[in-house]
Amino acid sequence: MSTPTVYLDHAATTPMVPAAVEAMTAQLLEVGNASSLHASGRRARRVVEESRETIAQALGCRPGEVVFASGGTESDNLALKGVFWSRRAADPRRTRILSTAIEHHAVLDPLAWLAEGAEQAEVELLPVDARGRLDPATLEAAIERDPDTVALVSVMWANNEVGTLQPIDEVVALAGRYDIPVHTDAVQAVGAVPVDFATSGVDALTLTGHKLGGPYGIGALLARRQLDMTALLHGGGQERDVRSGTIDPPAVAGFAAAVELAVKQQADYAVRVAGLRDRLVRGVLAAAPEAVLNGPDPAEPGARLPGIAHFSFPDCEGDSLLMLLDARGIECSTGSACSAGVPQPSHVLLAMGRDDRTARSSLRFSLGHTSTEADVDALVAAIGPSVERARTAHA
Description:
- The chain is of the alpha/beta class.
- The chain has 2 domains: 18-264, 3-Layer(aba) Sandwich (Aspartate Aminotransferase, domain 2); 266-394, Aspartate Aminotransferase, domain 1, CATH 3.90.1150.
- It is 42% helix and 14% strand.
- The chain contains 13 helices and 15 strands.
- It has a 7-stranded mixed β-sheet, with helices on both faces. A 4-stranded antiparallel β-sheet has the order 9-10-15-12, covered by helices on one side. Strands 1-11 form a two-stranded parallel sheet.
- Helix 6 links the parallel strand 5 (150-154) and strand 6 (182-185).
- Helix 2 (39-59) packs parallel to helix 8 (249-264), helix 5 packs parallel to helix 6 and helix 9 runs parallel beside helix 13 (373-394).
- The longest helix has 22 residues, at 266-287.
- It is globular, with a radius of gyration of 21 Å.
- The relative contact order is 0.16.
């Protein structure tokens, strides 16, 4: 008899919600290119534009500020490269990009490309504290050193590994003094914490479908109409002429349904999932007392996402511990990125001041809309024996 799977990796991807499946399925057998002028094309265009309006209403922006993309990675690339190129073209002095050392690789890698290639951008990855939080004073000092050279600022809304929320309001206020645009990767935040585009004051915001109960392969960049961006893709001129390509009405419909539901249920979701997270944290620390919870104290209001619990397990290899749990039917993730099968220490933990050994010994447990107390209890029952085996293997 197979062991039922306990899924604790919702920060990587979460199951589609029925409303999104229904909305997407309803469009899959329909025909029509949303750029065509005939009746079928107009029907497809109506699906796209009504979905755009749904997302705009849910997230506090204008429909024209919703630019559909293939997901968070493309959205981040469009914001970073597109805004940088436009700002530098308007003023060649603007060669600096300020970001943080804990960003997702969908931000870090485009920044590295801009810095290392012919673009010659000056990328500054600002440090964070031991909780994984940017100190606004650090950003202020970086801007004030030479504000006329800063093209843009990019700071994630919430960290995907340890769950730390960043001081977006203060980032926007500091950048706004010098009319510097702010981009935020809010992939982990939408549906988990309150996110309102207009109120936040950011100029561009990334979100994606599969993190909040929608389909894979669809996301959006919310971008203020006055924000100039150079296109990455050229072709039919769709999406304000900054993201050419045939629009996918079924995916867009599923995405919009998921966003609408996630935002509507956000407050109740946060309370329920935070309760499960606290139960998980207590249980893991009781079963494995040497474990260390990374990130802010869960009791600190507004400091972290409700659904992420990230631990370091001394004298364990995170990959080994992950596989031991996987053999017991419990799925989670390590705190490290894996490239070509070679484990690397978590860049987030290193930026938070942890040593290399600690950065390789971590696991992330992330909860979502399908998580239950039984899932948490199954992990708690398995974590002690798994840690002991992992220590034995590591010794």
